[in-house]
């Protein structure tokens, strides 16, 4: 391995984490990092004063372009589009190259979809990688003052999205347990009491499996649909089981149907400790094999 290759490989985990945060997709992140490698391979290394900054700048620009293309595809996605989870459990191990990426909560990834690609890049570089505004300006082609405004605006828009992104894991785990207990018992009232008044639930099936084709809004809507799904699952003769796990480092439920993962469920609480955001991933293309 040459010194230049070794340098790139040392940066690969951070570049993967950056691109995953930008795109919310594993394959998209890997493609962006591979494109970064191809440009690095062709670059005049002697003329690059700071290789780490050069690689981060290149990867971010590639990810911004990729996100713009992805947004166009997501507009025609069948039902709600949700970011791809990075899942761990006793039986599932996360790939080493995504270990840094899993630090980004799914609720935050989802909320960042409301940011423009440039806002998203500025926010991620500043908050996740502690980049200076001079570096963000060089990457985005905007002034440092404009970049400060980008980051500030991103913060405001994310705060308006509803769920907390800094909830203690034990709070999330407790809410998940209480929700699963109510759902398993088909206790409609208990489930209803767990949701914030403006709660929203999303199910991503990718038109590969049955899933709600619209967001479920409010406790009544969410509870009615989820109880119907739970009742049907309990009547189904197929063998299914649930186990605790982690999705992007946060507590989650992993459900298996006849041994194969068919659902990842997690949530984010509201300021008053109820469920503000419920995430249900069923798209087999986004689930662990």
TrEMBL record:
Residues 7-71 form the RNA polymerase sigma-70 region domain. This is RNA polymerase sigma-70, ECF type. Interacts transiently with the RNA polymerase catalytic core formed by RpoA, RpoB, RpoC and RpoZ (2 alpha, 1 beta, 1 beta' and 1 omega subunit) to form the RNA polymerase holoenzyme that can initiate transcription. Pfam families: Sigma70_r2, Sigma70_r4_2. GO terms for molecular function: DNA binding; sigma factor activity. InterPro entries: ECF_Sigma-70_Domain, NTF2-like_dom_sf, RNA_pol_sigma-70_dom, RNA_pol_sigma70_r2, RNA_pol_sigma70_r4_t2, RNA_pol_sigma_r2, RNA_pol_sigma_r3/r4-like, WH-like_DNA-bd_sf. It comes from the Bacteria. GO terms for biological process: DNA-templated transcription initiation. Residues 108-158 form the RNA polymerase sigma factor 70 region 4 type domain.
């Amino acid at each position: 391995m040459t010194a230049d290759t070794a340098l790139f490989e040392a940066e690969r985990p951070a570049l993967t984490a950056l691109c995953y945060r930008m795109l919310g997709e594993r394959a998209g992140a890997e493609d962006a990092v591979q494109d970064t490698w191809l440009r690095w391979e062709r670059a005049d290394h002697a003329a690059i004063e700071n290789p780490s900054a050069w690689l981060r700048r290149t990867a971010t620009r590639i990810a911004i372009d990729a996100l713009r293309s992805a947004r166009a595809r997501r507009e025609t996605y069948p039902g709600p589009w949700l970011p791809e989870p990075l899942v761990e459990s006793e039986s599932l191990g996360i790939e080493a190259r995504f270990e840094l990426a899993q630090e980004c909560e799914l609720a935050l990834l989802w909320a960042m979809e409301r940011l423009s690609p440039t806002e998203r890049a500025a926010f991620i570089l500043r908050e996740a990688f502690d980049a200076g505004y001079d570096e963000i300006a060089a990457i985005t082609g905007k002034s440092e003052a404009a970049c400060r405004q980008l980051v500030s605006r991103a913060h405001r828009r994310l705060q308006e999205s509803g769920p907390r992104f800094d909830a203690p894991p034990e709070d999330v785990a407790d809410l998940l347990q209480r929700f699963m207990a109510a759902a398993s018992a088909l206790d409609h009232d208990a489930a209803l009491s767990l949701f914030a008044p403006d709660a929203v639930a999303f199910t991503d099936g990718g038109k590969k499996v049955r899933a709600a084709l619209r967001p479920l809004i409010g406790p009544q809507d969410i509870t009615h649909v989820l109880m119907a799904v739970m009742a049907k699952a309990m009547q189904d003769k197929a063998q299914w089981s649930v186990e605790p796990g982690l999705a992007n480092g946060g507590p989650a439920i992993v459900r298996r149907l006849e041994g194969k993962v068919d659902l990842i469920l997690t949530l984010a609480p509201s300021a008053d400790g109820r469920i503000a955001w419920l995430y249900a991933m069923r798209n087999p293309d986004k689930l662990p094999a």
